Amino acid sequence: MAIKRTLIQGGQVYDHEGDVHKPAIGDILIEDDKVVSVGANLPRDGVNEIIDASGRLVVPGLINAHYHSHDTLCRGLFEELPLEIWLLYTLPMGGDRSKEEVRARTLVGALECLRCGITTVQDMLGLSPLNDENTDVVVDAYRESGIRVVFSPMVWDIPPIGMVRHKDSLPLDVQEMLGNKPRPIRQQFDYLEHQFKRHPAGGTLHWAVAPFAPQRCTPKMLQGCAELADKHDLAVYTHVYETRGQVLIARELFADHDGSLITYMDNVGLLGPRLNIVHSVWISRSEIDRMAAADAGIVLNHLSNLKLKSGIAPVYDMRQSGVRLGLGCDNCSGTDVQSVFQAMKMFCLIAAVSEPEPGPGLAHEVLRHATLGNARTAGLAGRLGAIRPGYKADLILIDLNDVAYLPYNSAARQLVYTEAGRGVESVMVNGRMVIKGRVVKTIDEEALRREVASLMRHFIADYDAMLQERKRALPYMLDAHRRMWEPDIGMDRFITRRP
Ligand SMILES: [Zn+2]
To answer: By the 8 A CB rule, do 101 and 455 touch?
Structure first.
Protein backbone atom coordinates (compact mmCIF):
# COMPACT_ATOMS: atom_id res chain seq x y z
CA MET A 1 0.00 0.00 0.00
CA ALA A 2 1.21 3.52 -0.78
CA ILE A 3 2.53 5.49 2.17
CA LYS A 4 0.49 8.53 3.14
CA ARG A 5 2.69 11.57 3.81
CA THR A 6 1.37 14.53 5.79
CA LEU A 7 3.31 17.71 6.44
CA ILE A 8 2.34 19.94 9.35
CA GLN A 9 3.94 23.19 8.37
CA GLY A 10 5.12 26.27 10.22
CA GLY A 11 3.81 25.64 13.75
CA GLN A 12 5.62 26.18 17.04
CA VAL A 13 6.52 22.58 17.85
CA TYR A 14 6.62 21.87 21.58
CA ASP A 15 9.75 19.92 22.45
CA HIS A 16 10.26 18.70 26.03
CA GLU A 17 14.04 19.10 25.54
CA GLY A 18 13.88 22.45 23.72
CA ASP A 19 12.70 25.94 24.67
CA VAL A 20 9.49 25.13 26.56
CA HIS A 21 8.46 28.78 26.72
CA LYS A 22 8.98 29.78 23.09
CA PRO A 23 9.16 26.59 21.02
CA ALA A 24 10.93 26.87 17.69
CA ILE A 25 8.92 27.09 14.49
CA GLY A 26 9.22 23.92 12.43
CA ASP A 27 7.60 21.33 10.21
CA ILE A 28 6.56 17.80 11.07
CA LEU A 29 6.63 15.10 8.42
CA ILE A 30 4.33 12.18 9.11
CA GLU A 31 4.28 8.89 7.23
CA ASP A 32 1.09 6.95 7.89
CA ASP A 33 0.85 6.76 11.70
CA LYS A 34 4.37 7.92 12.59
CA VAL A 35 6.41 11.09 12.81
CA VAL A 36 9.46 10.66 10.55
CA SER A 37 11.12 14.05 10.85
CA VAL A 38 10.84 17.35 12.65
CA GLY A 39 12.74 20.45 11.53
CA ALA A 40 12.78 23.76 9.72
CA ASN A 41 11.60 23.90 6.09
CA LEU A 42 11.19 20.19 5.42
CA PRO A 43 10.86 19.31 1.71
CA ARG A 44 7.34 18.90 0.34
CA ASP A 45 8.29 16.15 -2.14
CA GLY A 46 5.80 13.31 -2.19
CA VAL A 47 3.59 14.91 0.45
CA ASN A 48 -0.14 14.08 0.09
CA GLU A 49 -1.49 16.63 2.53
CA ILE A 50 -0.15 19.88 3.94
CA ILE A 51 -1.60 21.25 7.17
CA ASP A 52 -0.87 24.91 7.78
CA ALA A 53 0.08 25.32 11.44
CA SER A 54 1.20 28.93 11.36
CA GLY A 55 -0.01 30.75 14.46
CA ARG A 56 -0.48 27.37 16.14
CA LEU A 57 1.29 25.62 18.98
CA VAL A 58 1.78 21.95 18.13
CA VAL A 59 1.82 19.89 21.31
CA PRO A 60 2.21 16.14 21.93
CA GLY A 61 -1.24 14.61 22.45
CA LEU A 62 -2.20 14.58 26.11
CA ILE A 63 -2.71 11.22 27.78
CA ASN A 64 -5.38 10.56 30.39
CA ALA A 65 -3.91 7.77 32.51
CA HIS A 66 -6.96 7.15 34.68
CA TYR A 67 -10.57 7.14 33.60
CA HIS A 68 -13.67 4.96 33.77
CA SER A 69 -16.20 5.22 30.95
CA HIS A 70 -18.91 3.37 32.87
CA ASP A 71 -20.36 6.42 34.67
CA THR A 72 -19.97 9.10 32.01
CA LEU A 73 -23.72 9.73 32.01
CA CYS A 74 -23.59 10.47 35.77
CA ARG A 75 -21.74 13.73 35.15
CA GLY A 76 -23.09 16.43 37.46
CA LEU A 77 -25.31 14.09 39.47
CA PHE A 78 -23.22 13.95 42.65
CA GLU A 79 -21.64 16.41 45.00
CA GLU A 80 -20.15 16.39 48.50
CA LEU A 81 -20.03 12.60 48.83
CA PRO A 82 -17.02 10.79 50.32
CA LEU A 83 -15.77 7.93 48.14
CA GLU A 84 -17.51 5.01 49.83
CA ILE A 85 -20.93 6.71 49.73
CA TRP A 86 -20.34 7.87 46.18
CA LEU A 87 -19.59 4.22 45.23
CA LEU A 88 -22.89 3.19 46.76
CA TYR A 89 -24.65 5.50 44.31
CA THR A 90 -22.50 5.27 41.18
CA LEU A 91 -21.73 1.54 40.95
CA PRO A 92 -25.31 0.54 40.08
CA MET A 93 -25.50 3.20 37.36
CA GLY A 94 -22.63 1.60 35.41
CA GLY A 95 -23.50 -2.10 35.36
CA ASP A 96 -26.00 -4.09 33.30
CA ARG A 97 -26.96 -1.22 31.03
CA SER A 98 -28.28 -1.42 27.46
CA LYS A 99 -25.99 -1.78 24.47
CA GLU A 100 -27.14 1.65 23.25
CA GLU A 101 -26.22 3.23 26.56
CA VAL A 102 -22.79 1.56 26.69
CA ARG A 103 -22.06 2.82 23.18
CA ALA A 104 -23.28 6.36 23.89
CA ARG A 105 -21.38 6.72 27.18
CA THR A 106 -18.17 5.47 25.55
CA LEU A 107 -18.54 7.98 22.71
CA VAL A 108 -19.38 10.87 25.06
CA GLY A 109 -16.22 10.24 27.10
CA ALA A 110 -14.08 9.85 23.98
CA LEU A 111 -15.52 13.04 22.50
CA GLU A 112 -14.88 15.02 25.65
CA CYS A 113 -11.30 13.73 25.83
CA LEU A 114 -10.61 14.62 22.19
CA ARG A 115 -12.11 18.10 22.52
CA CYS A 116 -9.72 18.63 25.44
CA GLY A 117 -6.64 17.54 23.48
CA ILE A 118 -6.46 14.02 24.93
CA THR A 119 -5.28 11.60 22.25
CA THR A 120 -4.96 8.53 24.52
CA VAL A 121 -7.29 7.49 27.30
CA GLN A 122 -6.79 4.66 29.77
CA ASP A 123 -10.25 3.21 30.33
CA MET A 124 -10.35 1.09 33.47
CA LEU A 125 -13.82 -0.06 32.72
CA GLY A 126 -16.22 -1.64 35.17
CA LEU A 127 -17.96 -3.74 32.54
CA SER A 128 -20.92 -5.82 33.60
CA PRO A 129 -21.62 -8.37 32.38
CA LEU A 130 -18.15 -9.20 31.07
CA ASN A 131 -19.06 -10.63 27.69
CA ASP A 132 -18.24 -10.45 23.99
CA GLU A 133 -21.20 -8.28 23.10
CA ASN A 134 -20.47 -5.54 25.65
CA THR A 135 -16.78 -5.61 24.78
CA ASP A 136 -17.48 -5.24 21.06
CA VAL A 137 -19.68 -2.22 21.72
CA VAL A 138 -16.89 -0.48 23.66
CA VAL A 139 -14.06 -1.42 21.29
CA ASP A 140 -16.16 -0.39 18.26
CA ALA A 141 -17.12 2.94 19.85
CA TYR A 142 -13.49 3.76 20.57
CA ARG A 143 -12.50 2.78 17.03
CA GLU A 144 -15.29 4.94 15.63
CA SER A 145 -14.20 7.95 17.74
CA GLY A 146 -10.59 7.67 16.56
CA ILE A 147 -9.10 8.14 20.04
CA ARG A 148 -6.32 5.84 21.20
CA VAL A 149 -7.42 3.67 24.11
CA VAL A 150 -5.55 1.60 26.65
CA PHE A 151 -8.43 -0.64 27.51
CA SER A 152 -8.60 -2.64 30.74
CA PRO A 153 -11.92 -4.14 31.84
CA MET A 154 -11.57 -4.42 35.62
CA VAL A 155 -11.36 -7.80 37.32
CA TRP A 156 -11.84 -8.76 40.98
CA ASP A 157 -12.96 -11.71 43.06
CA ILE A 158 -13.73 -9.97 46.37
CA PRO A 159 -17.02 -8.07 46.07
CA PRO A 160 -17.35 -4.25 46.24
CA ILE A 161 -18.23 -4.37 49.95
CA GLY A 162 -14.49 -5.11 50.41
CA MET A 163 -13.93 -1.36 49.98
CA VAL A 164 -15.58 -0.66 53.34
CA ARG A 165 -13.86 -1.09 56.70
CA HIS A 166 -15.93 -3.02 59.28
CA LYS A 167 -18.20 -4.18 56.48
CA ASP A 168 -19.62 -6.95 58.69
CA SER A 169 -21.17 -4.39 61.01
CA LEU A 170 -23.44 -3.17 58.18
CA PRO A 171 -26.95 -4.65 57.87
CA LEU A 172 -27.12 -7.42 55.29
CA ASP A 173 -29.33 -5.46 52.90
CA VAL A 174 -26.84 -2.56 52.94
CA GLN A 175 -24.03 -5.05 52.21
CA GLU A 176 -26.11 -6.33 49.31
CA MET A 177 -26.63 -2.81 47.96
CA LEU A 178 -22.89 -2.22 47.79
CA GLY A 179 -22.36 -5.69 46.35
CA ASN A 180 -21.45 -8.79 48.34
CA LYS A 181 -21.24 -11.46 45.64
CA PRO A 182 -17.75 -12.66 44.70
CA ARG A 183 -16.81 -13.25 41.05
CA PRO A 184 -15.17 -16.45 39.85
CA ILE A 185 -11.49 -15.98 38.99
CA ARG A 186 -10.98 -18.39 36.07
CA GLN A 187 -13.94 -17.06 34.13
CA GLN A 188 -12.53 -13.52 34.20
CA PHE A 189 -9.08 -14.57 32.98
CA ASP A 190 -10.68 -16.68 30.24
CA TYR A 191 -12.73 -13.62 29.27
CA LEU A 192 -9.63 -11.38 29.05
CA GLU A 193 -7.56 -13.92 27.09
CA HIS A 194 -10.50 -14.37 24.73
CA GLN A 195 -10.84 -10.59 24.16
CA PHE A 196 -7.09 -10.16 23.54
CA LYS A 197 -7.50 -12.72 20.73
CA ARG A 198 -10.76 -11.33 19.37
CA HIS A 199 -9.46 -7.76 19.29
CA PRO A 200 -5.69 -7.93 18.92
CA ALA A 201 -3.80 -4.81 20.01
CA GLY A 202 -2.85 -2.62 17.08
CA GLY A 203 -3.62 0.75 15.55
CA THR A 204 -5.31 2.75 18.31
CA LEU A 205 -6.20 -0.21 20.55
CA HIS A 206 -3.97 -1.27 23.43
CA TRP A 207 -4.77 -3.58 26.33
CA ALA A 208 -3.84 -3.43 30.01
CA VAL A 209 -4.64 -5.56 33.06
CA ALA A 210 -6.69 -3.97 35.85
CA PRO A 211 -7.35 -5.74 39.12
CA PHE A 212 -9.81 -3.34 40.80
CA ALA A 213 -7.77 -2.91 44.00
CA PRO A 214 -5.58 -5.21 46.12
CA GLN A 215 -8.23 -5.40 48.86
CA ARG A 216 -10.73 -6.51 46.18
CA CYS A 217 -8.54 -9.41 45.02
CA THR A 218 -7.34 -12.62 46.62
CA PRO A 219 -3.64 -13.55 46.20
CA LYS A 220 -4.67 -16.04 43.50
CA MET A 221 -6.42 -13.29 41.53
CA LEU A 222 -3.45 -10.91 41.77
CA GLN A 223 -0.96 -13.65 40.87
CA GLY A 224 -3.10 -14.42 37.84
CA CYS A 225 -3.03 -10.73 36.85
CA ALA A 226 0.78 -10.62 37.18
CA GLU A 227 1.09 -13.74 35.01
CA LEU A 228 -1.37 -12.47 32.41
CA ALA A 229 0.49 -9.13 32.16
CA ASP A 230 3.84 -10.95 31.73
CA LYS A 231 2.43 -13.34 29.15
CA HIS A 232 0.98 -10.54 26.99
CA ASP A 233 3.55 -7.85 27.85
CA LEU A 234 0.96 -5.49 29.33
CA ALA A 235 0.85 -2.75 31.95
CA VAL A 236 -1.12 -3.18 35.17
CA TYR A 237 -3.30 -0.50 36.80
CA THR A 238 -4.94 -0.84 40.19
CA HIS A 239 -6.51 1.51 42.77
CA VAL A 240 -4.35 1.75 45.92
CA TYR A 241 -4.76 3.78 49.13
CA GLU A 242 -7.41 6.09 47.79
CA THR A 243 -8.93 6.72 51.24
CA ARG A 244 -7.78 6.70 54.83
CA GLY A 245 -10.05 3.71 55.40
CA GLN A 246 -7.97 1.69 52.96
CA VAL A 247 -4.85 2.13 55.12
CA LEU A 248 -6.82 0.80 58.08
CA ILE A 249 -8.05 -2.14 55.98
CA ALA A 250 -4.40 -2.83 55.09
CA ARG A 251 -3.27 -2.64 58.73
CA GLU A 252 -6.15 -4.79 59.99
CA LEU A 253 -6.72 -7.38 57.26
CA PHE A 254 -3.27 -7.66 55.69
CA ALA A 255 -1.21 -8.15 58.86
CA ASP A 256 0.51 -11.12 57.15
CA HIS A 257 1.90 -8.62 54.63
CA ASP A 258 3.23 -6.08 57.19
CA GLY A 259 -0.15 -4.35 57.05
CA SER A 260 0.85 -2.88 53.68
CA LEU A 261 -0.90 -3.17 50.32
CA ILE A 262 2.48 -2.55 48.65
CA THR A 263 3.99 -5.55 50.50
CA TYR A 264 0.91 -7.57 49.59
CA MET A 265 1.38 -6.78 45.90
CA ASP A 266 5.11 -7.54 46.21
CA ASN A 267 4.37 -10.90 47.83
CA VAL A 268 2.09 -11.95 44.97
CA GLY A 269 4.56 -10.87 42.28
CA LEU A 270 2.84 -7.70 41.12
CA LEU A 271 5.29 -5.03 42.34
CA GLY A 272 7.50 -4.23 39.36
CA PRO A 273 7.93 -2.04 36.28
CA ARG A 274 4.54 -3.00 34.81
CA LEU A 275 2.64 -1.83 37.88
CA ASN A 276 0.87 1.51 38.24
CA ILE A 277 -1.03 2.31 41.38
CA VAL A 278 -3.78 4.87 41.06
CA HIS A 279 -4.40 7.62 43.69
CA SER A 280 -1.96 6.78 46.53
CA VAL A 281 -3.37 9.51 48.73
CA TRP A 282 -2.54 7.57 51.90
CA ILE A 283 0.72 5.87 50.91
CA SER A 284 3.62 6.11 53.40
CA ARG A 285 7.06 7.44 52.53
CA SER A 286 8.70 4.02 52.88
CA GLU A 287 6.07 2.51 50.57
CA ILE A 288 6.73 5.27 48.00
CA ASP A 289 10.45 4.47 48.17
CA ARG A 290 9.69 0.79 47.54
CA MET A 291 7.57 1.75 44.54
CA ALA A 292 10.42 3.88 43.17
CA ALA A 293 12.99 1.12 43.72
CA ALA A 294 10.76 -1.33 41.81
CA ASP A 295 10.25 1.16 38.94
CA ALA A 296 6.53 0.98 39.61
CA GLY A 297 4.48 4.12 38.96
CA ILE A 298 1.84 6.28 40.58
CA VAL A 299 -1.08 7.83 38.70
CA LEU A 300 -2.32 10.93 40.53
CA ASN A 301 -5.94 12.09 40.43
CA HIS A 302 -6.00 15.18 42.63
CA LEU A 303 -9.34 16.40 41.29
CA SER A 304 -11.37 13.32 42.18
CA ASN A 305 -9.46 12.84 45.47
CA LEU A 306 -10.54 16.31 46.52
CA LYS A 307 -14.09 16.08 45.22
CA LEU A 308 -14.61 12.70 46.93
CA LYS A 309 -13.06 13.93 50.18
CA SER A 310 -10.24 11.40 50.10
CA GLY A 311 -7.40 13.85 50.75
CA ILE A 312 -4.24 15.04 49.01
CA ALA A 313 -1.54 12.72 47.70
CA PRO A 314 1.91 13.43 49.18
CA VAL A 315 3.50 14.84 46.05
CA TYR A 316 6.52 16.21 47.93
CA ASP A 317 7.51 12.71 49.12
CA MET A 318 6.82 11.34 45.66
CA ARG A 319 9.09 13.89 44.03
CA GLN A 320 11.81 13.29 46.63
CA SER A 321 11.71 9.53 46.03
CA GLY A 322 11.94 9.89 42.24
CA VAL A 323 9.00 7.52 41.72
CA ARG A 324 7.61 7.79 38.21
CA LEU A 325 4.39 9.80 38.02
CA GLY A 326 1.39 10.00 35.74
CA LEU A 327 -1.87 11.95 35.84
CA GLY A 328 -5.48 10.99 35.34
CA CYS A 329 -8.92 12.61 35.34
CA ASP A 330 -10.91 9.72 36.87
CA ASN A 331 -14.69 9.29 36.72
CA CYS A 332 -17.10 11.70 35.08
CA SER A 333 -19.11 11.70 38.32
CA GLY A 334 -16.09 12.14 40.56
CA THR A 335 -14.20 14.98 38.88
CA ASP A 336 -16.49 15.65 36.69
CA VAL A 337 -14.42 16.45 33.66
CA GLN A 338 -11.98 14.79 31.30
CA SER A 339 -9.43 17.58 31.19
CA VAL A 340 -5.72 16.95 31.53
CA PHE A 341 -5.36 20.76 31.54
CA GLN A 342 -7.21 20.88 34.86
CA ALA A 343 -5.26 17.89 36.19
CA MET A 344 -1.93 19.51 35.26
CA LYS A 345 -2.86 22.82 36.84
CA MET A 346 -3.97 21.11 40.04
CA PHE A 347 -0.69 19.14 40.17
CA CYS A 348 1.31 22.37 40.13
CA LEU A 349 -0.95 24.22 42.59
CA ILE A 350 -1.10 21.40 45.13
CA ALA A 351 2.65 21.81 45.72
CA ALA A 352 1.81 24.85 47.86
CA VAL A 353 0.25 22.56 50.48
CA SER A 354 3.58 20.93 51.32
CA GLU A 355 6.18 23.15 49.67
CA PRO A 356 6.07 26.81 50.66
CA GLU A 357 9.57 27.34 49.21
CA PRO A 358 9.91 28.37 45.56
CA GLY A 359 10.26 25.33 43.32
CA PRO A 360 8.44 22.39 41.74
CA GLY A 361 5.96 21.35 40.41
CA LEU A 362 6.58 23.40 37.37
CA ALA A 363 4.57 23.63 34.19
CA HIS A 364 7.16 22.03 31.90
CA GLU A 365 7.58 19.16 34.40
CA VAL A 366 3.88 18.37 34.61
CA LEU A 367 3.65 18.47 30.81
CA ARG A 368 6.19 15.62 30.83
CA HIS A 369 4.12 13.66 33.37
CA ALA A 370 0.96 14.13 31.28
CA THR A 371 2.62 12.93 28.08
CA LEU A 372 5.85 10.91 28.49
CA GLY A 373 5.02 9.84 32.05
CA ASN A 374 1.54 8.69 31.14
CA ALA A 375 2.84 6.87 28.05
CA ARG A 376 5.24 4.99 30.34
CA THR A 377 2.35 3.87 32.58
CA ALA A 378 0.87 2.01 29.60
CA GLY A 379 4.19 0.49 28.54
CA LEU A 380 4.22 2.84 25.53
CA ALA A 381 7.41 4.77 26.32
CA GLY A 382 9.31 5.63 23.15
CA ARG A 383 6.08 5.49 21.13
CA LEU A 384 3.85 8.17 22.67
CA GLY A 385 4.27 11.47 24.50
CA ALA A 386 6.56 13.52 22.27
CA ILE A 387 6.77 14.86 18.72
CA ARG A 388 9.92 13.05 17.66
CA PRO A 389 10.92 10.81 14.75
CA GLY A 390 9.73 7.27 15.41
CA TYR A 391 6.90 8.35 17.73
CA LYS A 392 3.24 7.90 16.85
CA ALA A 393 1.68 10.94 15.20
CA ASP A 394 -0.55 11.86 18.16
CA LEU A 395 -0.60 15.64 18.49
CA ILE A 396 -2.78 18.68 19.01
CA LEU A 397 -2.84 22.10 17.38
CA ILE A 398 -3.54 24.94 19.79
CA ASP A 399 -4.81 28.20 18.35
CA LEU A 400 -2.49 30.95 19.58
CA ASN A 401 -5.13 33.53 18.61
CA ASP A 402 -7.18 32.40 21.60
CA VAL A 403 -7.29 34.99 24.35
CA ALA A 404 -5.46 32.54 26.65
CA TYR A 405 -2.32 33.50 24.66
CA LEU A 406 -2.94 37.24 24.65
CA PRO A 407 -0.21 38.10 25.37
CA TYR A 408 1.82 34.99 24.65
CA ASN A 409 4.78 34.71 27.03
CA SER A 410 5.28 31.00 27.72
CA ALA A 411 3.96 27.90 25.96
CA ALA A 412 4.42 25.58 28.96
CA ARG A 413 3.01 27.95 31.58
CA GLN A 414 0.04 29.08 29.52
CA LEU A 415 -0.81 25.50 28.51
CA VAL A 416 -0.86 24.49 32.18
CA TYR A 417 -2.23 27.57 33.96
CA THR A 418 -4.33 29.33 31.31
CA GLU A 419 -5.57 26.84 28.73
CA ALA A 420 -9.03 25.46 29.51
CA GLY A 421 -9.34 23.39 26.34
CA ARG A 422 -10.83 26.24 24.33
CA GLY A 423 -7.69 26.63 22.25
CA VAL A 424 -7.69 23.00 21.04
CA GLU A 425 -8.33 23.46 17.34
CA SER A 426 -7.20 20.23 15.71
CA VAL A 427 -6.35 16.79 17.02
CA MET A 428 -4.40 14.07 15.25
CA VAL A 429 -4.35 10.49 16.49
CA ASN A 430 -2.24 7.82 14.83
CA GLY A 431 -1.64 10.11 11.84
CA ARG A 432 -5.35 10.76 11.28
CA MET A 433 -7.03 14.15 11.78
CA VAL A 434 -9.82 13.36 14.22
CA ILE A 435 -10.68 17.02 14.86
CA LYS A 436 -9.83 19.58 12.19
CA GLY A 437 -10.55 23.28 12.58
CA ARG A 438 -12.73 22.45 15.64
CA VAL A 439 -14.90 20.06 13.60
CA VAL A 440 -14.99 16.47 14.85
CA LYS A 441 -14.50 14.27 11.79
CA THR A 442 -15.33 10.92 13.34
CA ILE A 443 -18.35 11.26 15.63
CA ASP A 444 -21.66 12.76 14.50
CA GLU A 445 -22.01 15.09 17.48
CA GLU A 446 -25.58 16.12 16.75
CA ALA A 447 -26.74 12.52 16.43
CA LEU A 448 -24.94 11.66 19.68
CA ARG A 449 -26.63 14.56 21.47
CA ARG A 450 -30.05 13.34 20.35
CA GLU A 451 -29.19 9.77 21.33
CA VAL A 452 -28.02 10.80 24.82
CA ALA A 453 -31.09 12.99 25.36
CA SER A 454 -33.30 10.05 24.54
CA LEU A 455 -31.31 7.60 26.73
CA MET A 456 -31.26 10.00 29.68
CA ARG A 457 -35.02 9.77 30.21
CA HIS A 458 -34.69 6.12 31.18
CA PHE A 459 -31.33 6.66 32.91
CA ILE A 460 -32.61 9.41 35.22
CA ALA A 461 -35.69 7.36 36.11
CA ASP A 462 -33.35 4.51 37.14
CA TYR A 463 -31.16 6.97 39.04
CA ASP A 464 -34.13 8.37 40.99
CA ALA A 465 -35.31 4.86 41.89
CA MET A 466 -31.78 3.91 42.98
CA LEU A 467 -31.47 7.00 45.23
CA GLN A 468 -34.78 6.16 46.83
CA GLU A 469 -33.81 2.54 47.45
CA ARG A 470 -30.35 3.38 48.82
CA LYS A 471 -31.36 6.21 51.11
CA ARG A 472 -31.62 3.63 53.87
CA ALA A 473 -27.91 2.85 53.61
CA LEU A 474 -26.76 6.43 54.01
CA PRO A 475 -26.55 6.68 57.84
CA TYR A 476 -24.63 3.39 58.02
CA MET A 477 -22.20 4.49 55.32
CA LEU A 478 -21.71 7.86 56.96
CA ASP A 479 -20.95 6.14 60.25
CA ALA A 480 -18.44 3.82 58.55
CA HIS A 481 -16.85 6.86 56.91
CA ARG A 482 -16.53 8.71 60.23
CA ARG A 483 -15.06 5.69 61.97
CA MET A 484 -12.26 5.45 59.45
CA TRP A 485 -11.04 8.85 60.66
CA GLU A 486 -10.81 7.82 64.31
CA PRO A 487 -7.60 5.79 64.74
CA ASP A 488 -4.27 7.57 64.52
CA ILE A 489 -2.36 6.24 61.52
CA GLY A 490 0.62 8.52 61.93
CA MET A 491 0.29 10.33 58.61
CA ASP A 492 -2.46 12.89 58.87
CA ARG A 493 -1.14 15.25 56.29
CA PHE A 494 -3.00 18.48 55.79
CA ILE A 495 -6.09 17.48 57.78
CA THR A 496 -7.15 20.29 60.08
CA ARG A 497 -10.58 19.12 61.20
CA ARG A 498 -11.65 15.57 61.78
CA PRO A 499 -15.29 14.55 61.69
ZN1 LIG B 1 -10.61 4.91 39.42
So the answer is: yes
